[in-house]
Design brief:
The protein is an alpha+beta fold. The chain has one helix spanning 5-32; strands spanning 36-45, 51-60, 66-75, 80-83, 90-93, 100-102, 108-110, 115-123, 133-139, 142-148, 154-156. The strands form 3 sheets. Strands 3, 4, 7, 9 and 10 form a 5-stranded antiparallel β-sheet that branches. The protein has a 4-stranded mixed β-sheet with strand order 8-2-1-11, with no helix packed on it. Strand 5 (90-93) and strand 6 (100-102) form a beta hairpin.
Length: 161
């Protein structure tokens, strides 16, 4: 009896198993990859000195929760870094009800396929709505860089909301 086909069958099974394993790792990587969409809305001149408030919608497009730990803005033309406030800040008090409106502090938690509209207070003496920006989101799953054109946002007052 000739058993030369047994090593050939074992080799074929090994190749198929390797292919299926690689396919599984690729699909897992694709599902857990950081996919956050950032939609910029408006800049508001905050009442404090040298502060601005940036309104943005964050959309988590993954099936896992994501925590945004920090945002950093880069002015392309000035080569400057603008940091954000880590804690929540009082933006204004509505009159006559006395209702208070606060900015969002970090971390900002997004559930699977969740979107959230947030107000971020940024430091800086620059009039940032007149410049092209790069924004870096630091999350628990990595970093995401987003470009923001100066034409996509506008300056508004809080009363216009």
């Amino acid at each position: 009896m000739n058993y030369d086909w047994i090593p050939l069958v074992a080799l074929i099974i090994s190749v198929v198993s390797l292919f299926l394993t690689l396919l599984k790792y690729f699909l897992d990587w694709r599902q857990t990859r950081l996919k956050i969409k950032v939609i910029p809305h408006d800049f508001y001149k905050y009442g404090g000195p040298d502060k601005n408030t940036f309104e943005v919608t964050l959309i988590n497009k993954t099936m896992h929760s994501v925590s945004i730990l920090d945002m950093v803005f880069y002015l392309k033309s000035q080569k400057a870094i603008i940091n954000t406030k880590r804690q929540s800040v009082l933006l204004f008090t509505e009159q006559p009800s006395g209702r208070e409106f606060y900015s969002d502090g970090f971390p900002i938690n997004l559930g699977p396929y969740e979107s959230k509209r947030v107000f971020i207070v940024v430091d800086g003496i620059f009039v940032i709505w007149l410049h092209d920006l790069k924004m870096t989101l630091h999350t628990n799953k990595g970093r995401k860089r987003v470009s923001i054109r100066k034409n996509s946002v506008q300056k508004r007052e809080f009363l216009d909301m």
